[in-house]
Amino acid sequence: MRYLRSAAVVVLSVACVLSMRAENKFVGSKACGMCHKSGKGGTSYAVWEKTAHAKAYQVLLSDNAKKIAKEKGLKVAANEAPECLKCHVTGGGVAKNVDASFKKEEGVGCEMCHGAGSAYKMVHMGGDKAKAKTAGMVTPAKDEKLCVTCHNSDSPTFKDFKFEEMWAKIDHSKKK
Questions:
Q1: What is the DSSP letter of 47?
Q2: Residues 144-165: what's their mean pLDDT?
Q3: Is residue 30 part of a domain?
Q4: Residue pLDDT, tens place only, 72-111
Q5: 3-class DSSP string for 121-162
Q6: The domain containing residue 96 runs over which residues?
Q7: How far apart are CA 69 and CA 75, in angstroms?
Q8: Exposed/middle/buried for 126, CB within 10 Å: 0-12, 13-18, 19+?
Q9: 102 with 25: CB under 8 angstroms?
Q10: What is the tally of structural domains in the chain?
């Protein structure tokens, strides 16, 4: 009986964590920038602001994007097309679980790799990394697999993806 009670507690705990992750909302990179722009929280946000990822949505507003959308026969503008938004906006541009603070204009932001932040941002701000992970924060390893979900030959502007070279441009793992 004691074993069954313990098992039930574990199952309920896992279910609770999974439901919390499923309900996490995208809050936008500016929420991360409050701490990660400089100082004790490191400069992750400051590094991101200077990358092409931060400007990924704006690319879809360019004349070149309009031309590509027309050539591809898209029925809507590039900045509205799911085929484009899936890689140019955190959450793929179609996420329904967004907080009022989330702006697609932020492009490919923190939550694209670290997961929707509504449930973990306050815990993370408190410094409890283990609880933040339990609440849905992802701390991806330096792994090319995540990057090539977008940086691949499906992209009409793909040339070549040199992972190490590109990683050096976005690496924000060091506190500066």
A1: H
A2: 93
A3: no
A4: 999 999 999 999 999 999 988 777 778 888 899 999 999 9
A5: HHHHHCCCHHHHHHCCCCCCCCCHHHHCCCCCCCCCCCCCCC
A6: 41-170
A7: 8
A8: exposed
A9: yes
A10: 1
| The model's pTM | 0.80
Average pLDDT over residues 109-133: 91
CATH assignment at residue 89: 1.10.1130.10
In a domain, 6, yes or no: no
Contact (Cβ atoms closer than 8 angstroms) between residue 51 and residue 61: no
d(CA 134, CA 145) in angstroms, rounded, equals 23
Q: Is residue 165 within a helix (H) or strand (E), and if so which, with residue range?
A: helix 163-170
Give percent of the chain with pLDDT exceeding 70.
Answer: 85
Q: Is the model's pLDDT at 140 over the cut of 90? A: no
Q: Is residue 24 part of a domain?
A: no
Q: Is residue 176 part of a domain?
A: no
